[in-house]
Write a structure and sequence with these properties.
alpha+beta, 4-stranded mixed beta sheet, 11 strands, single chain, 3-stranded antiparallel beta sheet, 204 residues, globular
Length: 204
């Protein structure tokens, strides 16, 4: 199973965080840190009435995307610095702690914590999200988990196919900086046997 993690690469702090993922694993948090205003919302019924906030917070979560999100300009725009970022490809063998998010506008009939924490509105469907959920004792300071093996890192390629690409790169300060950070990441990743590839969008 292949999963994908979008990350920005616009400054040295972004580069540091990607290196940290390569060395130590992926950061996990509870659902309150996510960007969906209706994250963890559910309608109380007899089966879930004993689930409260603290019970939900026992789960630490790391979000990934499936293959359908890799070609999404929205994903690159929202989570990878308007294309000046990366997508980390992970090969996962043990999928027992990874659940696919279900996109449903109704919060009815959510009877378990995992059902509650893997339901989102249909507006988020473009994310093709999968979630690693664990109740292992992970402190917030050390909430990093090795999830699968990093097999490839894709670089975003904004403007690359334009005839005046070199002119744009020269005048676009952020793009120029992004390419410098790319080189540093390639050097670091090559020591960890990671394959790098420029991502080419597939237009329908």
């Amino acid at each position: 199973m292949k999963l994908y993690k979008f990350r920005p690469l616009g400054d040295k702090e972004h580069l540091k965080r990607i290196k940290d993922i390569i060395n130590k694993g992926f950061y996990c948090c509870d659902f309150l840190e996510f960007n969906d205003m209706n994250e963890g919302v559910y309608i109380i019924n007899p089966k879930n009435k004993n689930i409260d906030l603290s019970t939900k917070q026992k789960y630490k979560i790391c979000s990934f995307s499936g293959i359908n999100a890799l070609n999404s300009q929205l994903m690159w725009g929202h989570y990878a610095n308007t294309g000046m970022g990366v997508v980390i490809e992970i090969d996962v063998e043990n999928c027992s702690e990874i659940k696919q998010v279900r996109y449903n506008d109704s919060s009815d009939n959510l009877n378990t914590i995992k059902e509650i924490l893997t339901r989102k509105s249909k507006e988020w469907k473009y994310e093709d999200e999968y979630r690693y959920l664990t109740t292992k004792n992970i402190s917030q300071e050390k909430a990093k988990v090795k999830i699968g093996k990093i097999s490839k890192i894709y670089f975003g390629t904004p403007y690359k196919n334009l005839n005046n690409y070199e002119e744009i790169k020269e005048k676009h300060k952020s793009l120029k900086k992004y390419h410098k950070l790319q080189k540093q990441l390639r050097t670091f990743g090559s020591r960890n046997s990671i394959v790098f590839e420029d991502y080419e969008f597939k237009f329908k």
